[in-house]
């Protein structure tokens, strides 16, 4: 099973993802994109990038020992997190970034935030502040794991 999604990438914002209804025609969507681009050009502002994405939908139950299923779910959660579907305050996002860093990016330098925070957070906050908040959460996770 699969589903099509429309992706809009605004220059100054994160990605926007919308599922395409089964009764929508791809050519109609692409025509809308062209009309939208013209309106942006008339307003002298850069148009967003439009594209389609296909997501596979897995209809199965995941068990604690199902490594592939867990990795698949993590990949979808990471994608949703990274494009900005999850929006929380700096403290909560730093905790999530610490988890991402420990799980997905553990081989990268500690202060490197690339890939740990979603795009919108990197644009909104100072990178040094993000790195400090993430490292603080990593230290807290490490301390809790020792107890």
Describe this structure in words.
With 147 residues, this protein is of the alpha+beta class. Helix 3 packs across helix 5. It has a three-stranded antiparallel β-sheet, covered by helices on one side. The N and C termini lie far apart (44 Å). It has five helices and three strands. The chain has two domains: 2-56, no CATH class; 88-146. The mean pLDDT is 84. It has helices at 26-42, 67-83, 90-104, 119-124, 127-146, and strands spanning 2-9, 15-19, 49-56.
Give a short overview.
The protein has helices at 26-42, 67-83, 90-104, 119-124, 127-146; strands at 2-9, 15-19, 49-56. The protein is of the alpha+beta class.
Give the N-to-C terminal Cα separation: 44 Å
By secondary-structure content and strand pairing, the structural class works out as: alpha+beta
Helix segment tally: 5
> What average pLDDT do the residues reach?
84
The coarse silhouette is flat
Question: Could you name the ranges where pLDDT drops below 50 across 5 or more consecutive residues?
Answer: none
The portion of residues forming beta strands comes to 5-15%
Radius of gyration, Cα only, in angstroms?
19 Å
Helix content: 40-55%
**Biggest beta-sheet profile:** 3 strands, antiparallel
What is the H-and-E element order?
EEHEHHHH
Neighbour order of strands in the largest sheet? 2-1-3
Task: State the total count of DSSP E strands.
Answer: 3
Q: What is the domain tally?
A: 2
């Amino acid at each position: 099973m699969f589903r099509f999604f429309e992706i809009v990438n605004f220059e100054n914002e994160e990605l926007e993802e919308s599922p395409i209804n089964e009764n929508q025609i791809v050519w109609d969507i692409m025509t809308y994109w062209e009309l939208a681009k013209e309106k942006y050009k008339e307003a002298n502002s850069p148009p967003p990038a439009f594209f389609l994405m296909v997501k596979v939908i897995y209809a199965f139950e995941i068990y604690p020992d199902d490594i592939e299923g867990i990795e698949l779910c993590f990949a979808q959660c990471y994608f949703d997190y990274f494009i900005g579907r999850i929006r929380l305050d700096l403290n909560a996002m730093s905790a999530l970034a610490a988890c991402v860093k420990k799980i997905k990016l553990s081989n990268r330098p500690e202060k490197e935030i690339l890939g740990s925070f979603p795009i919108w957070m990197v644009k909104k906050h100072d990178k040094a502040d993000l790195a400090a908040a993430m490292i603080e959460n990593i230290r807290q996770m490490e301390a809790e794991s020792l107890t």
